[in-house]
Amino acid sequence: MSIFNYFLKKEKKTSASVAKERLQIIVAHERTKRQQPDYLPLMQQEIIDVIRKYVNIEKDQVSVQLDNSDDCSVLELNITLPE
Q1: By 3-state DSSP, what share of the chain in percent is helix, strand and coil, each rounded to 5?
Q2: Which of 41, 52, 73, 77 is spaced 20 to 30 A from 59 at the CA atom?
Q3: HSE on the CB side for 44, CA within 13 Å?
Q4: How far, CA to CA in Å, does 33 sit from each of 4, 5, 16, 29, 57?
Q5: CB atoms within 10 A of CB 27
Q6: Are 47 and 64 in contact (CB under 8 A)?
Q7: pLDDT by residue (tens digit) across 42-54?
Q8: Alpha carbons 75 and 6: distance in angstroms, whole number
Q9: pLDDT bracket for residue 32 (50, 70, 90)
Q10: Predicted pLDDT of residue 7
């Protein structure tokens, strides 16, 4: 019966398949970074520095994204402020 169980059991995620999925996520993340302008990380740090003058926040509480569509570019800034 163990041979039948081998063929009937559901596919387990092997460490190789999990590693492959993680690598795909990393590659996708790096591709989005490549499309961003070089000044964006510096701009994000400067924005964080200005906000820190008034409110105590961490770096991970600020998200800066640049969306390009057709003939328009949109700079999106999301800040999680403490209550």
Answers
A1: 50, 20, 30
A2: 73
A3: 20
A4: 48, 46, 26, 7, 24
A5: 9
A6: yes
A7: 887 888 888 889 8
A8: 53
A9: low
A10: 61
Q: What number of other Cβ atoms are within 10 A of residue 54's Cβ?
A: 8
Provide, rounded to the nearest whole percent, the portion of the chain with pLDDT above 90: 0
Query: Which runs of consecutive H residues, i.e. helices, occur in the chain?
Result: 2-8, 15-34, 40-52
Question: Mean pLDDT across the stretch 5-11?
Answer: 59
Question: What pTM was computed for the model?
Answer: 0.45
How far is CA 36 from each of CA 9, 76, 83, rounded to the nearest angstrom? Answer: 45, 13, 31
Backbone angles phi, psi at 29, to 5 degrees: -65, -40
Structure tokens at 72: 């328009």
